[in-house]
Amino acid sequence: MTNNSLVDLHLHTSYSDGVHTPESLVRLAAEQGVVALAICDHDNLDGIAPARVVAEPLGIRLVSGVELSSRWRNFDDLHILGYGFDPEHPELGRELADFRDFRLRRNELIVGRVNRRLASEKRAPLDFARVLDLADGTLGRPHIAQALLEKGYVTDTAEAFQRYLIPCNVEKRFFPADQAIDLVHRAGGVAVLAHPSLITPERRRLENLIDVLASFGLDGLEAYHGGANRDEVDYLISLARRRNLIVTGGSDYHGFAGDEGRIGWCRGVLPIPYACVEEIQAALLRRREAASR
Asked: How far is it, in rounded angstroms, from Cα 118 to Cα 123?
């Protein structure tokens, strides 16, 4: 591949909190000039197989991906990206199925709380079956927001969260960061910290966190991401190099109208280079060679 080849290693589909089906997302990425991609749905692998069916005829390289909801000590919502693992790995499949079962119960509890608030406002309740229909995959709070919009109770997603979803929240379940990294490794993949610039603005604190995660076997940093400007990308690349970590990149595209131009780009100004795919492949090879010794 040439240096001008675009990749996007962080895309979401309707199987988590994205808008597009895996098939339509792959076609859209191809239209944007992307030659390699990874679908990284939240705690869900169901989008990988249908995406592969479409990607191969289009000549697009598909890297298996997932975004694990994680936490470590005072960092309550870390995201660990897994790449290049076996999507059929039994343990990974079981862990994510358990996670989704909890998420379903959590969201049912949230809908119950929202409905109690709606009753106090003398409004008809949401139908949980309808919320499930709107999800068409992994259920999340954005789908409850859609149901509130559909009922005309709010004017946009921001209002849905402010008026109902934040006050009616039920705490999420997270993988401890060391367990998330280990789970990705046991499934044959490499583990990368997603959008580091969004974790904390304090660089010393971020560096300390990365050092801890590296001690658990973290393989890389998502230096190219939608929340990073040019200076932050350079900083994250330097941070990764000093710690012998790989560099990856993805737009974190969810499919919202008008955002199509983000695919394959970091904030729409920095192309995500094919070298990110090559670094993942090299890290996978190193892990396999180490395991065979």
From this structure: 5
**Residues with Cβ within 8 Å of residue 152, at least 6 apart in sequence:** none
Residue 13 corresponds to which tokens in the numbers above? 């589909």
Beta-sheet pairing, 265-266 with 270-271: antiparallel
Look at residue 77 in the predicted model and tell me its pLDDT: 85
Q: How many CB atoms lie within 10 A of CB 258?
A: 6
What's the pLDDT score for residue 257? 75
CATH number of 6-94+175-292: 3.20.20.140
CATH 1.10.150 in the chain, residue ranges: 104-165
Please give the helix or strand (H or E) that residue 122 lies within, else none.
none
pTM of the model: 0.85
Tokens 């929202």 sit on residue: 114
CA pair distance 280, 243, nearest whole angstrom: 16
pLDDT digits (tens, 9 = 90+) for 127-161: 999 998 888 666 788 899 999 999 999 999 889 99
**Overall CATH class of domain 104-165:** mainly alpha
